[in-house]
Design goal:
Chain lengths: 222, 480
């Protein structure tokens, strides 16, 4: 019975149908399924599949976004119950996101926030035109693992460097990792400004964030 | 008959405008500049939380005061670019921070010598009616990078210039530079040499910087080219018609601000609309739908009787290769057939991230072909063929006819050696990129630098020093 339900939940995420995903989440609770198991076996399996399909060109950005939104809808039902039971989904890491000062373009950053949040990261999105000081303050406040700085414009890419310098100045790095993204951002630019990583799209950003946080965990336990 | 292409019927355009006017009231348009907000308020526009609701009668009034056409002038003060009607001109794309290195085929940061080389080639090619401040010079102080680009162009060119500022504070210095070039602010207003691109941020957002630029340009009487850039599916409705509607609303909002600040000041219905690539999240400038958006947006502008601009002749390829040629040539032809007054984008690779002077000379060939196409099929002489046959009979000796010699230059575009039509085994390199490199060298060797009066150069220097002081950077002038 649960297997069938998990399969349906997984499919609702792949199809990106929020109402259906929420309905199935409620059905899981009503039938006494462990919500954490429903997340791991149903929802997470769906979003992972969607990410893989995007990676190989079978799904597109609107599909991926719909999957992430469906995930959010289902989690909205399951999480309060998980909280009651004292169980919680494994948090992969805490990430502070924002668009560099002077830049108001946020499609890419929002997509990254949605995908990473759906995949198990705790996201604090500071919005657009964020100053280096705002990044630093928030990173300290929430004990961030990663700070992600987005910039679309070639003229605001310098703002990414300013944030990394501010993180350094406040002694947050190397513990806090700095990652960057944006249409004009290249691997070379990331290396030049000393970023810990960059990604070309939201799915690559997920892989990057997983790699960086797993390294941190390993370091922490060593 | 001049060939044309039309994507929208007049009824379709009216519907687009109807919805665009609706958007201007709901959800309205964000306007960031405080002086512009005041200007709009005093014209009766309701503004709540930075969102202006612009009523159609006011917008129509502003449309009515915008000039139907105007000229850009060259250094000599002659009319050189006619913005208006169906006249078509091209300028190199702008502005990116990288240059394709023809040796390594890698993109590297663009510097002053790159900009100079682009200017030199553009100056010698008649296909380009105007220069553009094509690349950011990474070796110049970043804080006055916009001023520097313009300075380098003014030092090296006679042609009109398509430019733009990087901030609200940067524009007055650039206008001063142009006024120094023209002799005075008054001369600049009477015979403008440059047009400034001013961009809203989609959707329906005129930032502090953009709005303020409109205000300053309108007051100075320097033409403003409103470059709205909806990304269909990303920052705008996914349908082409929906994005054209958003584009119309953004440009109408811009023209309203602009004409309220300076009624009668020249303004252009421009744009760089594109589709949003659903795999990469990028803006594919070489896509046929991107070309269709540019064409449709320009049709709306023409319907309103305004001068037009679009962003074409660019590619998404990283190299000057078959993709680059196919995408750029296709959109050059489409833009020309649409009668867009200024078509920017030639030379640009990688969705506008990188410039290539080699691509610029290949694009010039596509542009020349597009102009030839606009020339259409003409009736020349009293008969079409019979008079010539009366001379040759069935001998087939047309090459000997005086008509052939007299008319072949009008009938055929004669391409430069960038285009290979030779038989295999000729001395011409067999790939277009190698031929383009040789052509660039040839054009650069033909280029002659303008000789500017000493007093103008001194004024340039003092403006750059003043602006560098303002921005708190060193002010070394780029080499002459």
């Amino acid at each position: 019975m649960s297997d069938q339900l998990f399969q349906a939940m997984r499919q609702s995420i792949i199809d990106g149908v929020s109402d259906r995903a929420a309905e199935l989440a409620q059905e899981a609770l009503d039938s006494g399924v462990d919500p954490l198991e429903a997340v791991n076996e149903g929802l997470a399996a769906g979003i992972t599949f969607a990410g893989d399909q995007f990676g190989c060109g079978q799904m597109f950005l609107p599909d991926l976004l719909a999957s992430a939104e469906a995930m959010k809808a289902a989690l909205g039902i399951l999480e309060p119950e998980m909280l009651k039971r004292g169980s919680q989904r494994e948090v992969l890491g805490t990430i502070v996101l924002g668009t560099a000062r002077g830049d108001i373009h946020d499609i890419g950053k929002n997509l990254v926030a949605t995908i990473l949040s759906a995949s198990g990261f705790r996201i604090f999105d500071l919005g657009t035109s964020v100053t280096p000081e705002q990044f630093v303050t928030k990173a300290k406040e929430v004990d961030a693992d990663i700070v992600g700085i987005s910039a679309l414009l070639t003229t605001t890419m310098a703002g990414q460097k300013a944030v990394i310098e501010a993180l350094d100045r406040h002694g947050l790095r190397p513990r806090v990792k700095a990652i960057i993204g944006g249409a004009a951002v290249t691997k070379k630019w990331a290396a030049e400004i000393g970023a810990d990583g960059y990604s070309r799209n939201a799915i690559d950003a997920l892989e990057l964030a997983k790699n960086l946080t797993s390294k941190r965990t390993n370091k922490g336990t060593a | 008959m001049r060939p044309r292409i039309q994507l929208l019927t007049p009824e379709f355009i009216e519907r687009i405008l109807r919805e665009a006017f609706e958007l201007l009231m709901s959800p309205g348009v964000r306007v960031g500049s405080a002086p512009v907000v005041e200007l709009l308020r005093s014209a009766g526009v309701e503004i709540t939380d930075g969102v202006a609701r612009m009523p159609e009668p006011l917008v129509r009034k502003c449309l009515a005061s915008a000039p139907r056409d105007f000229y850009l002038h060259n250094r000599q003060g002659e009319e050189a670019v006619h913005y208006g009607g169906d006249d078509v001109h091209f300028d190199p794309g702008s502005c990116c921070v990288q240059m394709l290195d023809p040796e390594t085929l890698e993109a590297r940061p663009s510097e002053i010598p790159d900009l100079v080389r682009l200017i030199q080639v553009t100056e010698t090619l008649p296909q380009f009616a105007a220069q553009s401040t094509a690349v950011v010079c990474n070796d110049a102080p970043c804080a006055i990078g916009d001023l520097y680009r313009l300075l380098v162009v003014l030092q090296h060119s006679h042609k009109p210039v398509v430019t733009g500022s990087f901030s609200a504070a940067g524009l007055p210095g650039m206008i001063d530079l142009l006024a120094a070039d023209s002799g005075s602010r008054d001369n600049l207003r009477k015979k403008p040499r440059a047009v400034f691109d001013v961009c809203p941020s989609p959707p329906l957002n005129w930032s502090e910087f953009g709005s303020h630029n409109l205000l300053d340009l309108a007051r100075a009487g320097v033409p403003a080219e409103i470059v709205s850039m909806p990304l269909a599916g990303g920052t705008a409705p996914v349908t082409l018609a929906g994005s054209v509607t958003q584009h119309a609303a953004e440009v109408l909002a811009g023209i309203t601000q602009h004409q309220l600040a300076g009624p009668g000041s020249p303004v252009i219905w421009g744009g760089a609309p594109a589709i949003f690539d659903m795999r990469t999240g990028g803006a594919p400038m070489g896509a046929v739908e991107t070309a269709m958006l540019n064409m449709a947006c320009a049709e709306v502008g023409k319907h309103l009787g305004l001068p037009t601009h679009g962003y074409l002749v660019a590619t998404d390829s990283k190299l000057v290769d078959a993709q680059a040629g196919a995408e750029s040539a296709r959109s050059a032809v489409l833009g020309a057939l649409s009668g867009i007054n200024m078509i920017s984008g030639a030379g640009m690779l990688e969705s506008l991230a990188c410039h290539s002077v080699e691509k610029l000379v290949i694009d010039a060939e596509s542009i020349a072909s597009a102009f030839r196409l606009l020339g259409g099929v003409e009736m020349r002489g009293k008969t079409l063929a019979t008079a010539m046959f009366a001379q040759t009979g069935l001998s087939g000796e047309f090459l000997k006819l005086k008509e052939t010699r007299a008319l072949f230059r009008q009938e055929q575009h004669l391409p430069s050696p960038v285009i290979d039509r030779t038989a295999r085994g000729s001395e011409l390199p067999s790939d277009a990129f190698t031929r383009a490199r040789a052509r660039v060298d040839e054009l650069v060797s033909m280029y002659q630098k303008p000789s500017l009066p000493e007093d103008v150069l001194r004024k340039f220097q003092s403006i750059v020093e003043r602006e560098a002081d303002r921005a708190g950077v060193a002010s070394a002038l780029p080499g002459n």
